[in-house]
Amino acid sequence: MNPKSFDLYPKLQNINIEDTDLSEITAVAIPVVSDDQIKVVENNLVRSLINLTKLDFKVELSKWTEFSGKAGEIIEIPLSSGNLSRIYLVGVGAQNSDDIRKASTALGRKVKDTNTQLLVYLTSDSKLITIAATALVLSNYKFSLKTEQKDKKPTFILYGNFIEEVEKADILASAVWQARDLIHTPSNIKNPQWLAKQATSFVSSAKSSSLSIAIKSGNAIKDFGD
Predict the structure, then answer these.
(1) Structure confidence at residue 19 (pLDDT)
(2) Which residues make Cβ contacts (< 8 Å) with residue 29, sequence separation at least 6?
(3) What pLDDT sits at residue 226?
(4) Domain limits of the chain?
């Protein structure tokens, strides 16, 4: 595995609604829906943002006449309020799995190669949180064998009580990230010995008593096939 590539894996966290503190956050993403009209749906987080920044999101939306709220559209509002420097109004379309994935991917790319601490609220549907979190991480994937690389990576903090969903997303995203590394690693590097080391490493890092691995070579391969 290319350790430099995996070092660029973004941090993925979850924060309970009751524990939300905007003082350490550098950016916040909130959803824009277009059911009967284009609007930001108010909740505790949005109300906290309004109190903190004194922004009127209806006014902000009115400045962008071509914004339709379709999945992946983003309005970036720069500001200076403590550590908070950006608010992203993110179109979530029909709020289904495809549109939440598309919106999350666009948002993740927006902060790629930065140290942004991004508080993300795009959906309150627990079934869609894993999709959103996985897409956020994988939108930041890149592969390089260069010894000197940018080490900036965002932290995605999912808003709401979704510990299990975010943990599942972290497992899925890291597995896909590692699989992409295997694909992109040049063939002159990923010889059988190298692949065996990667497989052993994967099993060890899983820290599961239900997983084990045996690397066979030479006559052991022949005996195994008989």
Answers:
(1) 86
(2) 87, 88, 90, 107, 118, 119, 120, 121, 122
(3) 60
(4) 3-188, 191-226
Give per-residue burial for 43-77: e unless 16+ CB within 10 Å, then b: eebbeebeebbebebeebbeeeeebebebbbbbeb
CB 167 within 8 A of CB 22: no
Spatial separation of the C-alpha atoms in residues 131 and 61, rounded to whole Å = 26
Residue 200 above 80 pLDDT? Answer: yes
Q: Which tokens belong to 209?
A: 């008593």
CB atoms within 10 A of CB 90: 25
Find, among 125, 110, 130, 113, the residue nearest to 176 by Cα.
Answer: 130
> pLDDT, tens digit, for every residue of 157-178?
999 999 999 999 999 999 999 9
pTM equals 0.89
HSE toward the beta carbon, residue 154, CA cutoff 13 A: 27
Q: What is the DSSP letter of 9?
A: P
The class (CATH top level) of 3-188 is alpha beta
Tell me the two tokens of residue 184: 């992109």
Cα distance between residue 45 and residue 11, in whole Å: 21
Among 80-89, 125-134, 180-189, 200-209, where is mean pLDDT lowest? Answer: 200-209
The number of angstroms, rounded, from the C-alpha of 45 to the middle of its chain's C-alpha atoms is 20
